[in-house]
Amino acid sequence: MPTRAGFVALIGEPNAGKSTLLNRTVGAKVSIVTHKVQTTRARIRGVAMEGDSQLVFVDTPGLFRPRRRLDRAMVAAAWTGAADADVVVLLIEAHRGLTEGVQAILDGLQDRTDGRKVALAINKIDRVEAPVLLKLTEDMNAAFGFERTFMISAEKGHGVDDLRAWLATEVPEGPWLYPEDQIADLPMRMIAAEMTREKLTLRLHQELPYQLTVETESWEARKDGSARIDQVIYVARDGHKGIILGKGGETIKAVSKAAREEITEFVGHKVHLFLQVKVRPGWLDEAERYSEMGLDFRDGA
Fold first, then answer.
1. Is the pTM here over 0.70, yes or no?
2. In 10 A of CB 244, how many CB atoms?
3. Among 81, 129, 69, 132, which Cα is nearest to 105's?
4. What share of the chain is helix, strand, coil (3-state, %, to 5)?
5. pLDDT band at 184; cut points 50, 70, 90
């Protein structure tokens, strides 16, 4: 059997379940998953093996109406991810249906897919009755010529195997793009920073998660097999620093503990995590911060 390999872009509105589907398909946690929208910033690639096929998933930021430079760079990254892929999967939420945001994505797909195969994955199917699902499937396929439609629950795993099996037959014939045991092409430093940012996002509220970023400054292997990781949390204002530290430092301690445990599990050995909070009022306008997130600063202009 010839081997196959190709890129699969997962696109959709914020919170549609793209990161959950990526993590479920790859079988490991490589993308940030929270209950807050717009949490995926970089195009994270997760690699899944399906028979003789290697599927390289691009988890794009959610497509939404951008307001700030960072938003614009994220939306540009999402469309670039779709344009560069061999197959595109549009993920929508069953209970929300054909929203204005989904319609805007369908309009964008008409211009940007250029003959690529596009599949529809209706997620969170456990939230609606069968007649609603049937009507949504009909409406979506009337609005766009999807190659296939899949009913899935990314969280519970329903239908995900069928989607993955179909994708394995659709990517082009050719050699594998990554070693078989590699699950993500992001450097470990960035994955670790994303894990810490996820913990911050889960603990903080409202706008603050979008006003901060995390960078791994150093990663030092120790003789005992453990690693020392130093990370910096950049915030835009002095007031944000106090919120992140928390009363008596309790918030930063809880974040550090949760992040350390998850990074330890991911890398398979003990890590010592040290977090610092720094105020950088203009970080949202610094090209270097965007590069750290895997985004193009110019896309935000």
1. no
2. 19
3. 81
4. 45, 25, 35
5. low
